[in-house]
Design a protein that fits this description.
The complex is a heterodimer of chains A (about 600) and B (about 190).
Chain A (H helix, E strand, L loop, with lengths): L5 E6 L6 E6 L2 E7 L1 H4 L9 H11 L8 E4 L3 H14 L5 H13 L4 H9 L6 E3 L2 H10 L6 E7 L6 E9 L5 E9 L4 H11 L8 H8 L7 H7 E4 L2 E4 L16 H7 L23 H32 L3 E5 L6 H10 L4 E3 L9 H10 L24 H7 L3 H5 L13 E4 L4 H13 L4 E4 L13 E5 L4 H12 L8 E4 L4 H4 L9 H5 L5 E2 L17 E6 L6 H14 L3 E6 L11 H10 L4 E4 L2 E5 L1
Parallel strand pairs in A: 1-4, 4-5, 6-11, 11-12, 14-20, 16-18
Antiparallel strand pairs in A: 1-2, 2-3, 6-7, 7-8, 9-10, 13-21, 14-15, 15-19, 16-19, 17-18, 20-21
Helix pairs in contact in A: 3-4, 6-13, 7-11, 8-11, 11-12, 16-20
Chain B lengths: L1 H13 L5 H28 L21 H25 L3 H29 L2 H58 L5 E2 L1
Classes of the chains: A alpha/beta (about 600), B mainly alpha (about 190).
Amino acid sequence: MNYKKSILGISSNYHDSSAALLSDGNLIAFCKEERFTRIKHDASFPEFAIKYCLDKAKLKPDEIDIVVYYEEPAVKFSRVLISALAEFPFHVTGFIRAIRTWLTDRIWIQNEICAHFEIHPSKVRFIPHHVSHAAQCFFVSPFMESAILTIDAVGEWNTVGFAYGTQLTHKKIVQLDCNIYPHSLGLLYSAFTSFLGFEPNSQECNTMALAAFGKPTYIDNIYKIVSETNGNITVDQSYFHFLDEGNKLFSKKFIDLFGSPRNSNEPLPFDIYESDYSNFSEDHLRFADIARSIQDVLEELLLKSCLYLYSLAKSDNLCIAGGVALNVAAISKIHRFGPFKNIYIPPDPGDGGAAIGAALAEYYKDNAAEPIKFNNIQYLGEESYDLRFVEMLKHLNAADVKEYLIPGVEISWNSIEVIQNISEVELLDTCVSDLKSGRILAWFQGRAESGPRALGNRSILADPGNIQTAIRLSKKIKLREAFRPYAISVTPEDLNKLFEPSQTEGIDYPLKWMQITLPVLEEFRSNVKAAIHIDGTVRPQVCSLEDNPGFYKLLRAYGLQSGISALLNTSFNEKGYPLVNTPDEALLSFLRTDIDTLVINDVVIRKK
Amino acid sequence: MVEADSAWQLLKALEFENHEPYRAKLFINALEEVHHAFLFKSMANKFTRKSSINIAARRDKIYISADHDIRFKVAHYLGEKNVYGQFLSYANAIKNEEVKNLFLGIRGDEEEHQHMAYLHLKEKTGSNFRLNLFILREYLDIAYNDFVRFGKSIGDFFSGIIIFVLYFIGGVFFGKLCRRIITLQSKRKYLEL
């Protein structure tokens, strides 16, 4: 295909590698490498994601005009070097590990890109990490001007960026202030995540979910470590080992202050469907209290940062990006108590989505560039119409499969029913009837979601009013911690049945993409009780006809029978794996787990 | 990790396989490998304090295109054959009955996979001579990769010593300067992008 100018954005080497393609101002494709390699948060060079982007635009590698990398590796390497030497002699192992990784891999990213695309080095550009984040949220937001908060673990040097963006005359982003490594809210939260026995850079959502069960009794202790003045956050480094990527991020001094860390294998007994946890051990309650305390501190410091940004940018709009933007509880506090009227967060605000930001930042370097065009930015992933699995099913022996189910799954099925060539009405009727009878339904349609949340194209769905179904979903499909709540999907028409209308103003986009939590109104609580967290909140996705016609129709059809167009919605994957990407992967998960019905495009597969 | 990787490779291979009965066999094979990975992960979690075991490995070698068809099938066969032998060695060496039985149980599946892969490969290559040629080529590849891996571990050891020395030299002479640079960095605030 002929394009005048194609820009490919790349993010890689840390976590969530990805690629995004922008051709003649059209955002054509974006996908994370993990979807193809099945390695969650895959950090390797995104060769499959790149291939997908090129195939989507029918381009050859050498037809790409510019390749943009989402950060400046040389600057980042200098930061690693300087901070390790500054802490001399306490970082010998971290230094050896970091230097080896950098010299053998990360620093050569330009060569790797040139070799992959067979292009001249002058065609490879580098965009500062927090500029990529700022561009990824502001340039696709509906705002003409906005304050921009970028916040994550660390970019090159920046850990928090306070910026202002305008599209009034020409596109421009100005950084007004920043926080510098090692003073990082993202790393602070990750260190507590690691202390609580979860995987840093991956399971921060567990810390957030656990927080709802605790009391903020450790806030004073945390404020011995971290302080804030006029947007400047200071973290006492004697409590941390931030240089030791992927390892224990906290020091002995930290343990002296908070007690012994949790062993990751030790189960946490907290359950969103059980309100009595008075008999739990002191240690369990301590972990919940620590989670609550760090969550409260994060929210308070983010609010202060927002107030500071507001004083600098003087805008009513706020765009947020960076990994910390995935903390839905903190985003809710910014919405409720912050100074901004409108909030926008991109579907993938983390480093994965920064590939889009890098491409956009490069595109808008040309002041005369037209506004970019995109359609449903939340669904830019792979579309699969490969229906060969239907034929393959005929050759599968059910007895062969049964042996390989997740232990504890107690279904009895002798054959699989495959329903094809049915009308849309019949398909919806089958799905609604299955959902109403307590069956768990996997819904695989169209292009995959861009971000980490399942928004109705790679989703597992269930009746949100049925707690027993949700428990089965947790125990036999997701193998998920009982303290983590599920999200719901709801139509715009029924949104105000569940939530106070005043609470949903100014957050149209966070509501579309499950980026905020809201307290549920009393009247309809029982309809969604399986998705309500212990603090009375739920994380909704508001899905309109324009967003996703097929899923919207399913929600509406379900609403006609249940009284409210809402379904429990969780990502279609098994524990430890990313969202399923192809029909074969969907089928494998369906057969292996306790999912009762699988819908792939217009094919329904049911376990009898 | 090896089992999870096998499952992934097999799912990828499904994209390029059009023979439906064999697709079904590969699919079941993938299903079993996922299950093995799950069992190994559960067992590893039981015996370790290490936080969350990643069940997916970084791949050194990826067969993803249709023109790699025969090479994939050879690698599949040899992979199953190697794993079959390795699991037997592990089972003999391990004293813990639970782990031993897990290896022995899974080894049974691997034997079936090996047989299936061999028959299909023989059918695809057409003659024993061609089959052996492909196998020899794959063995040479494996040997080369092992050599590279060995060289890397030797290199890592010596580079570790050099970096260790450099850290001490750098720290003594530049530690103070680096602390000063960090302070100066925190004053660099305004930036037009």
